[in-house]
Every structure is written in C-alpha cells, then in structure tokens.
Specification:
15% of the residues lie in helices and 29% in strands. With 439 residues, it is an alpha/beta fold. The protein has four domains: 22-39 and 188-340, Molybdenum Cofactor Biosythetic Enzyme, Chain A, CATH 3.40.980.10; 42-63 and 155-186, Alpha-Beta Complex (Molybdopterin biosynthesis moea protein, domain 2); 68-148, Molybdopterin biosynthesis moeA protein, domain 3 (Beta Complex), CATH 2.170.190.11; 342-431, Beta-clip (Beta Barrel). The strands form seven sheets. Strands 9-6-8-7-11-10 form a six-stranded mixed beta sheet, with no helix packed on it. A hairpin with a 2-residue loop joins strand 25 (365-373) and strand 26. Helix 1 (24-33) runs parallel beside helix 6 (317-335) and helix 4 packs across helix 5 (275-281). It is elongated, with a radius of gyration of 32 Å. Bound molecules: ligand LQZAQKY5 and molybdate ion (MOO). Residues 294-298, 314, 316, 319, 385 line the site of molybdate ion (MOO).
C-alpha cells in the first residue's frame, strides 16, 4: 500500500496522493508498461474465433490420415476385368471392391473407377465382374486415379497455424481436422465497469439536476473494440460504502473475475468523489494520478491488491473517453499482449497556440476530436468536456502538444476504436513493447 503524502497545493486534484500529473505520452507508456500479458489459456475450438493463437497448431497426424477415394465407384487392383470382392484386404490383382467418396482405400488398390465409368455383369460362372463402360473417359482408370493419398494436405508434425495468428473460423476447422480439441490462446482482459453518480439516469428525458447516462450505451462496445471482454456493469450512487463494495473483489457478486475495473466519475475532489480513497481503503496503490491533458486530466490508474487494475475515468463524458483512450487502451493492449496502439500522423488544418498549463504549471496536451479534409485534420465543433456531439462525428483525435501546433505542421492523431485507421493521411507509426515513443 502506498503512502499518501500531501503535495504542495492542497486544492489540487492530486493533493494527498503523492503523485503529480504526468505528461500525456508518459501516461500512455506507463499504462502500457505497468501490465504484462495475461497467462495463455487452452480454450475449446468453438470459443476461440477471433482470439490470438499463442502456441502453434501442428498436424497431429498426416492429413488426410488415410488414403481415401475421391469418387463413388470401385477400388481396383491391376488390370480389368475385375471380379467384385467383398472386403478382402489387401485387394488382390484382378479384383475390385465397391467404395464411396471418402472411403478407406484398401491396400493393393491401384485406382478408383467412377461409378459412371464402370459396368457390372455376371460372368459365365454367375460371379459379378466389373468392366470399364463405354461411357468412361479415354484412359480410365489411370494408375492412382481418384485416390487421395494420405499426407497430401500436411504431414504429421507440420505447422498448420503459427503462433500469433488471429483465428478465423476456417483456422478452427483446420485445427479440428488436425486432431485438436483445444487451442492455446492469449486471453483478452475481462473488464468490469462501475458507473457512479446518483444524478445519473438510464432512460428517458432527464430532469434538471439529473443527467442521462452516456457511458452505459457505449462502454461495452468500446471495451470490445479495445481488445477487452466487457464484464459486469454495476451502477452505484455517490456513497463511499457503495464505492468500496463495488471495487472490492471479494464479494459473491463482485468484479473479482475481471482483470480491469473501469469506474466513471468520482475522480474529482468534492465530498462525493471517492476513487482514490476507496482504492487506498482497499489496500490498492495509485500508479498514475492525473495526466497533463485536457480534457480528462483527473484520470487515475491504480492497482488493487488482488491484481486487478482500476481505471478511474472522470465523469465528464468526453473527458472520460479521452482518458480511456489515453490509459485504458494501452492497459488493455498490454494485458492482451498487443502492441501499444499506434498513433497516426496528419497535417494540422488549424493553428493551436501554447497551452496555458494546469495548476501544477505543466503544459497540457490537448486531445481534440477531428475530421480529415483534403489530407488536413480539422477540429470538430461541440468538444466541451461534457459533450458527446463532436466525438460522435469525429474520425480521430488530434494530439496537440503543450507547445501548440501551426496549420500545415504535422500533428499526431489518435485513432478512435471505431474508425478505420486509414483516416489520417500519413503512415501510422508502429510502436511495439518497450519501444520509446515521443509525441
Ligand atoms: N474544483 C474543481 N472542480 C473540478 C475540477 C477541478 O480541477 N477543480 N476538475 C473538473 C474536471 S476537468 C473534471 S473532468 C471533473 C471530474 O469529475 P469527476 O470524475 O469527479 O466526476 P463527477 O463529479 O462525478 O461528474 C462530473 C460530471 O460528469 C457527469 N457524469 C457523471 N457520470 C455520468 C454519466 N454516466 N453520464 C453522463 N454524465 C455523467 C456528472 O453529472 C457531472 O456533470 O471535475 C471537474 N470539476
Ligand atoms: O479535464 Mo475535465 O476532464 O475537462 O472535463
């Protein structure tokens, strides 16, 4: 449990935590580096679509594993006419046996004759004899014709699906054919959500003093788009006891099965803002307390004693989504063994002066929802911290550094989880684990 030492400005949102707000690129990096990939797990094939394979799938035996017929007809041995044999193994020269498509070709078979190309008649002794019919194609049956030899698709031990593959349904079918019941995949983090605020209503038109919930309708989808699995959604009011209960991982209906718990609201410093106190009371520790960004600066990241990460999003709707993009996305990527989400680079269509700085004097990175026009990024309107209208039509988020950016200059763009990464004009910069990134 960390020591909470008051910092110089007791009115600062960071007062009492011992941590100062950190720069935006540093916050992303910290949220990525604080977590390692979840341990890999064996899952049944039907549950593995879309998951990333951690251990290569190899052929457990030759594919196909026996020589089979490609046609309905007869397995033949040697030259005809062929006396029809019933199940002799191996097939003796001059004999044939009825075979269906996919049937096990008996040993001694030299070819399969299609049903359309053969004629069965009785010989003088009343025995059934097969001959090639007049309808047969010239040259039928050629040696090996219509026999699918074993091992033509793969040999035992051959790698069929390398580790790192995102499994599609056909991969799963291939794994089944190769003899597997389970595949080893990288688990995705399960994310529970605690929505706080007694003023929040979930349906209808809110009365003055109430607000309609903006997080319930979007967070589940966004969590999935960020590579997580949405878990329990819990709604609480503003009491400390409710916060403790919701964040506690030990209750029967708790978020214990989650790897991450996201909370909304309660990151400020009023008497109803309990994120930090609840984490401290539960024995957790803050990893990050405030980011020099706007909106979203009160964002908090903590680790709970049971190993869950707690992401405290501010209550203001746009601020929350920018905080989620800044610290939630890298955290989920790290837990899912994915690279740090890529930033794109575009050209700014606007001038942005230097930022005035926050209470601790740090210049803030501005996250501005934007659209692209003729290769330039322009801010959208309606991007106040409490608004959703601008974000709803945005194609990305401009990352304007504290010093500002002039029109015509390159600017980093954070893709939105639901917009195609190709929206910005220039090639994305790939940033892998342990690769330093600078805005
Ligand atoms: N004296 C100061 N006040 C505030 C500061 C500050 O530095 N000093 N920072 C402001 C900033 S910036 C933000 S962001 C917010 C952070 O607030 P909280 O995280 O404590 O969130 P709440 O106070 O609970 O709510 C803020 C706002 O968001 C609305 N809200 C909450 N949940 C929802 C929801 N599910 N759907 C829609 N809207 C929601 C809530 O009604 C409030 O209007 O603090 C500022 N204040
Ligand atoms: O930074 Mo707050 O997060 O503006 O609304």
């Amino acid at each position: 449990m960390m020591t909470f030492t008051p910092i110089a400005d007791p009115t600062s949102p960071m007062a009492g935590t011992g941590l100062h707000s950190i720069d935006w690129p540093e916050a992303r990096r910290l949220a990525y580096d604080c977590a390692g990939p979840l341990p890999t797990a064996q899952v049944p094939l039907h549950a593995a679509a879309g998951r990333t394979l951690s251990s290569a799938v190899t052929a457990l035996q030759d594919l196909p594993h026996y020589a089979s017929s490609a046609m309905d007809g007869w397995a033949l041995s040697g030259d005809g006419p062929w006396l029809l044999a019933a199940g002799q193994q191996p097939l003796a020269p001059g004999t044939a046996a009825v075979i269906a498509t996919g049937g096990l070709v008996p040993e001694g078979t030299s070819a399969v004759l299609r049903k359309e190309s053969g004629l069965v008649a009785e010989d003088g002794a009343g025995r059934p004899v097969l001959t090639v019919s007049a309808d047969a194609k010239p040259g039928e049956p050629r040696p090996g014709q219509h026999v699918r030899p074993a091992g033509t698709e793969a040999l035992a031990g051959e790698t069929l699906i390398p580790a790192g593959t995102v499994l599609n349904p056909a991969h799963l079918a291939l794994a089944a054919v190769a003899g597997h019941d389970l595949v080893e995949v990288q688990p995705q983090p399960v994310v529970s959500v605690v929505l706080t605020g007694s003023e929040v209503v979930t349906s209808g038109i809110p009365a003055p003093g109430n607000v309609r919930d903006t997080f319930g309708p979007q967070l589940g989808t966004v969590i999935s788009q960020l590579g997580g699995i949405p878990g329990n959604f819990t709604r609480i009011g503003d009491s400390f006891a409710a916060w403790l209960e919701a964040l506690d991982g030990s209750g029967p209906d708790s978020a214990a099965r989650a790897d991450v718990v996201i909370t909304t609201g309660g990151t400020g410093k009023s008497g109803t803002d309990h994120f930090r106190d609840a984490v401290a009371a539960l024995g957790g520790r803050l990893l990050l307390d405030g980011v020099a960004m706007r909106p979203g600066h009160p964002a908090v990241l903590a680790e709970l004693p049971d190993g869950r990460f707690a992401v405290g999003l501010p209550g203001n709707p746009l601020a929350a989504m920018m905080a989620l993009a800044t610290i939630g996305a890298p955290l989920l990527a790290a837990l899912g063994n994915q690279p740090l989400p890529q930033l794109q680079h575009a050209t700014s269509g606007n001038d942005f002066g230097p930022d005035g700085g926050c209470s601790d004097g740090k210049g803030r990175t501005r996250l501005i929802p934007c659209r692209f026009l003729s290769g330039l990024a322009f801010p959208v309107s309606h991007t106040g911290p409490g608004m959703m209208r601008g974000l709803a039509w945005a194609e990305g988020v401009m990352v304007v550094p504290p010093g500002g950016v002039d029109s015509g200059q390159p600017v980093a763009v954070l893709p939105l989880p639901w917009t195609p990464a190709a929206a910005a004009t220039q090639t994305a910069v790939s940033v892998g684990r342990n690769t330093p990134w600078h805005a």
